Amino acid sequence: MLSRRGWVVLIAALLSASLTGRLGLWQLDRAAQKVSLQAALDAQSQQPALSNAELAGADQVHRRVALRGTWVADRTVWLDNRPMDGRVGFFVVTPLLLSGRDDTVLVQRGWAPRHVAERNRLPPLATPAGEVEVIGRLAASPSRLYELGEGSTGAIRQNLDPAAFGAEAGLKLLPLTVVQTDASADDGLLRHWPAPELGLHKHYGYAFQWFALCALILVLYVWFQLVRPRLRKQQP
């Protein structure tokens, strides 16, 4: 017969095990949702490349594109502290004025190294004049880094908010960006972009931790409340 303290310990153990088990199942459910979403994104990325006329909005993220337009070179932004291939440098972002349209799209053109001694010294960048073709995939805004205070202005920035930048530059920007993937572009930039990833393995890792904690709670209860008292009784 359990004492009052025994019932309290049992109820606490069962509630804790139930909670951690539910959290593990919730993480598995989140992982299943990410699997479905990743499959949808993979299927979307295999569709034919969008042209200027087909470019619409944010619901086309991860679609391939083949766009024609003119670089707005004087509005190029260098996003600082962006790594690629183990080195820190800049992501180069230049607006592209779309041919046959009055709007513009931000293009994450590639990566350039940062000068070791002079942080504000920009490397040379070849930006062709006239109409160009840009091959890539659609993405959301450039990744954001932690930044103290208000966002900076000028050529070198920590982050870039497309809406604010469009108002600042007087450009009609689409609510998405293009990650340029065309390796034949002769501008000296690296384009070893990581594949889009939704953090699927993170959810599996969290699920394992919750299930392990659930198992630990049950094992500790069995040991301290059942096994250990019996062993003590058996001792002479």
TrEMBL record:
Q: Where in the cell is it found?
A: Cell membrane; Membrane
Transmembrane segments annotated in the record for this chain: 204-224
Which CDD domains does UniProt cross-reference here?
A: SURF1
Q: Which InterPro entries match?
A: Surf1/Shy1, Surf1/Surf4
Q: Which UniProt keywords apply?
A: Cell membrane, Membrane, Transmembrane, Transmembrane helix
Return the PROSITE patterns for the record.
SURF1 (PS50895)
Principal location: membrane
Q: How does the entry describe its membrane topology?
A: Multi-pass membrane protein
Domain of life where this protein originates: Bacteria
Q: Which family does it belong to?
A: Belongs to the SURF1 family.
Q: Please state what the protein is called.
A: SURF1-like protein
Protein source organism: Pelomonas parva
